[in-house]
Amino acid sequence: MVCVSLETRPLNSRVLFTRRSFHSPMEKKDFEAWLENLSASFYTLTDLQKNETLDHLISLSGAVQLRHLSNNLETLLKRDFLRLLPLELSFYLLKWLDPQTLLTCCLVSKQWNKVISACTEVWQMACRNLGWQIDETVQDTLHWKKVYLRAVVRMKQLEDHEAFQTASLIGHSARVYALYYKDGLLCTGSDDLSAKLWDVSTGQCIYGIQTHTCAAVTFDEQKLVTGSFDNTVACWDWSTGAKTQHFRGHTGAVFSVDYNDELDLLVSGSADNTVKIWALSSGTCLNTLTGHTEWVTKVVLQKCEVESIVHSPGDFILLSADKYEIKIWPIGREINCKCLKTLYVSDDRSICLQPRLHFDGKYIVCSSALGLYQWDFASYEIQRIIKMPDSTNLSLLGFGDIFALLFDNHNLYIMDLRTEKLISRWPLPEYRKSKRGSSFLAGEIAWLNGLDGMNDIGLVFATSMPDHSIHLVLWKENG
Q1: N or C: which terminal CB in the chain sees fewer CB atoms within 10 Å?
Q2: φ and ψ at 4, to 5 degrees?
Q3: pLDDT, tens digit, 9 for 90 and up, residues 7-50
Q4: What is the total count of domains within the chain?
Q5: Same domain, 267 and 291
Q6: d(CA 441, CA 460)
Q7: For residue range 434-474, what is the model confidence (pLDDT) as tens digits?
């Protein structure tokens, strides 16, 4: 053994360099005993002493030892759990991270991006949280991350008031009072004694026929049904413009009409405070429903979708609304019916209902000065009251499982019904006001049950303007 000792005092310190060389390597048994003793001693040291010991050993190491140390440290300190764990465990851990963190993790490596992008449950939940519908039948594992990224863009557009665009329909020469929208087509009825059918996507007028003054309109591919200020209802053929049926019997303007070809029934609500039920094909009045004490401004003929004591799924139900009340009537093969229930928001009739009414077979929703009222149709009990923010008096346009579409004199609003917060606003021009609510309407409403990346197209809102044009609010293409 050779020992060399050098003593220096450049900074009043003493450094001892010791070099030891072995004439021959230890036997395996002796080495294992030495290593065990060294390990036992190493465990007794403090963290600082352990660090100093390692520093000293590193200083004594050559290239072979340093290369070995570098290779093993990478494995010990940079363990890729997404690569090492079973895929099911990786997915479980990823569910605890928020979407933004997951997107950042996708940048770590191609392997991480592949695993995270394929975590379907994580991205489906992120989409649901944004109010998007989930189609469980989609098998593509990478599909839902792409959907989420599109959803983020659309929700940011809504938040920044950039999701919509506007257009106008010009063609009437007098006040447009009645509007009705279905399947990309908008029908308008005017005091110029005409009704027009428009293709919203192109802005082109498909049909224009001469009618009476229209207070309400509804239509299908073959026919147009109009309620008029002349106290009558009429049915018209689109292709010829001919009047195919005339319904006379009301003594006041007809503000709302609805019909069902399967039942061969037409219903109408009037300023004479009555609801009439007509045979659609013959024009015969089958029944007059009384009980309203104000103008009947809305009638809805709809199938019930829930079970109760008085109706079953598939039964046809008639709703009629006036300024204070909503009445529920059973409609079937037997036309003579009695009112099942009367709904209202104030016993003393001090609170008025807005003229818009939503009924999807499960819930009835109407707005008032107190907020949005939602009734459960199975029990007729109030299920929910949504107070309007900042004491604003917003009117209802559309109501779904996730979103509601509302408006006032100045803006169009979208409310997230899960939080009851307004998430988007769009300015409206000075449109023509109507106490009966027929001169403005919602367009496509499927997205109110949740966006899906394909239903955010087409018409959102339409209203008539003082210059006799129609102002349209449309979805802007999702960037």
Answers
A1: N
A2: -125, 125
A3: 433 434 334 344 444 457 788 888 888 999 999 999 999 999 99
A4: 3
A5: yes
A6: 9
A7: 655 568 899 999 999 999 888 999 999 999 999 999 999 99
